[in-house]
Amino acid sequence: MRYDVITFGSATLDVFLVSELFKVIRSAQFVGGKGECVSFGSKIELDDMAISTGGGATNTATTFARNGFSVATVCKIGEDLAGAEIFNTLKKEKIASNFVIKSRQGQTGYSTLLVTKEGQRTVLVFRGLAEKMKETEIPWKKLSAKWFYITSLGGNVKLLKTILNFAEKNKIKVALNAGSREIKHPDFNKLLSKVALLITNREEAERIAGKRVGIGGILGYLGNLAAPASPAKRGGRGNLGVLTDGAKGAYACEKGKCYKVGIYPFKVKDATGAGDAFGSGFVAGLIKYGSVRKALQLAAWNASNVVTEIGAKAKIVRGFPKKPLRVSKLV
Known about the structure:
The protein contains nine helices and 17 strands. It is of the alpha/beta class and about 325 residues long. The strands form four sheets. Strands 6-1-11-12-13-14-15-16-17 form a nine-stranded mixed sheet, with helices on both faces. A four-stranded mixed sheet has the order 5-2-9-10.
């Protein structure tokens, strides 16, 4: 079977703990100058909690499935309770699990998220098998798709190279939303010639560009790195760079034309999964409508909804917004 999209990356079980007693303080002791803290030795009361599946591979696959695409995912899990819950979620969302790698040698990835009353969070991560996927475990001959959507591979640049080479050989378009550990690798920029669509946040984009420049400069740089994929009737035009900038909105640049979209003024309950929702929403819109503007509108709708509920999947949308945000063209 040829899928519309196959996603790659992690699959995890996430536990969300919400309390107004989680405090953010400024201190030079923490990376970034801020820390999320609790009173030492105290019993901390929780205001809310939730358990759900997460990970870039399954989060993004859920967006594609809910928007009518045939989708499969490639990830690695253990034969444990967390792995069973991930399988149940994939079945519920009608995501093909044919390529999910199951192993008895290790545990499924697991995260605990400490969420403040403002919706910001600190993530305690046990990556487990999520970052131990090997090229030899993937059934390459069975992978057939129009698009590959690659999320963080836990710094496994060797695997990233293999996926990109396979996609190039089989004329599969690639959307890449890499993790920070892949981006820091000295070979990362060299791989972008094989990517049709690159999705980053501003911090990641500045690292890739190697300098601090304006939004237009960053997007132009990212767009020029992307592969010049041939035009297609339903998206996949290539030379696309997409950048998210938190509450300031997001941008897309295609062949020198740059666009901006804002965010919906929804109350943030939990920011987990917003990046996955935006990136996968953009690709879904690009494939479905063949328009960068509509892709940005669907992406903003998806990401803005996801943050209104605890967990990365609960509020992933189905379909285009009735009242899409305005997309402006940057001069």
